[in-house]
Amino acid sequence: MTSSVGRRSCAVISPSGIADKRQLFQKESIKTEKLIITAAICGAEVTKEQNPAVPYTLEEMVREAKSAYDAGAAVIHVHVRWDDGTPTQDRERFRVVMDAIRAACPGVILIPSTGGAVGMTPEERLQPTELMPEMATLDCGTCNFGDDVFQNDMPTLRAFGKRMLENHIKPEYECFEIGHLDTALTLARKGQAPGEPMQFNFVLGVGGCTPATVPNLCYLVSQIPAGSTWTVTGIGRHAFTMAAAIAMGGNVRVGFEDELTLSRGVLAKSNGELVARVVELAKLLGREIATPDEARRILSLK
After folding, report:
1. What is the pLDDT of residues 214-253, one digit of tens each?
2. Sign (positive/negative) of CA torsion 176, 178, 181, 186?
3. Percent of the chain with pLDDT over 70
4. Which of 129, 259, 260, 288 is the most buried (most CB within 10 A)?
5. 177: helix, coil or strand?
6. ∠ at Cα 28 (23, 33), nearest 5°?
7. Quick one: 27 exposed, middle or buried, by C-beta within 10 A (0-12, 13-18, 19+)?
């Protein structure tokens, strides 16, 4: 059984907001795989002015990846920066950073971003796929991103899907909006992007996108194909609220890309501190933590 329990995870929520007679978490949701924790260690937007521990340099990236890995993260989601903090999708920068992280974190799963930063061209964004990673992100639609627009039109999505098919890369389908899930499923059904078993990341709470609520998460999970795996990312103050996924049989992403604090007004000193908080929650809920090898099996990477 995969770490997702698909349609059995949540009750169906009626338009009036009242759950049907089924329990919110079915018995099947307890029989889950171990929890895969992903650490998104820097993103493209956050800065040292917001938290001095945000990594820019190669050494800082390795430090933060290792802190997350040592705390229990099996997966590192990788953006890269130049040393002055400017986001880049430069292939060679990705190569150097990813090689160094692999050396420091044996067996870790790396998921490079093909989202890059707002305003980058599709050609720029695709550069990490030239390194033949086992996984990469595939953003599933255009959306508001605060005051910006994150552009992902259908020709772009088909081009990204084609590249991942050609290079045998498993996408992590990034869904910021409910409609993005339908887009991902349509691409896979038409053979324009890799299909089942699929891995989804539901990114909830971005300003202008789907709010980070448990009912929204339940709806998304209820629509994925049987045998899929899924992760949730809660943005900002929603980071640990969305850890409800632990009890639902899903997986969790945290990290400086998504949240810079442990609690109101308390900056996290490292990505490892954020991962350790998820580990604590998982222990309280009786969920074991997946090693990189276990995560690779759960995600059908081997």
Report:
1. 999 999 999 999 999 999 999 999 998 888 899 999 999 9
2. negative
3. 90
4. 259
5. coil
6. 135
7. exposed
∠ Cα 296 297 298 (to 5°): 95
pTM: 0.90
Q: Dmax over Cα atoms in the chain, in whole Å?
A: 55
Q: Which two tokens stand for residue 27?
A: 């018995």
Q: pLDDT digit string (tens) for 118-164?
A: 999 999 999 999 999 999 999 999 998 878 899 999 999 999 999 99
Q: Residue 27: CB partners within 8 Å, gap ≥ 6?
A: none
Q: Are 206 and 235 in contact (CB under 8 A)?
A: yes
Chain position carrying tokens 């950073």: 97
Token duo for residue 85: 């903090």
Nearest partner of 13 among 5, 26, 22, 4, judged by Cα: 22
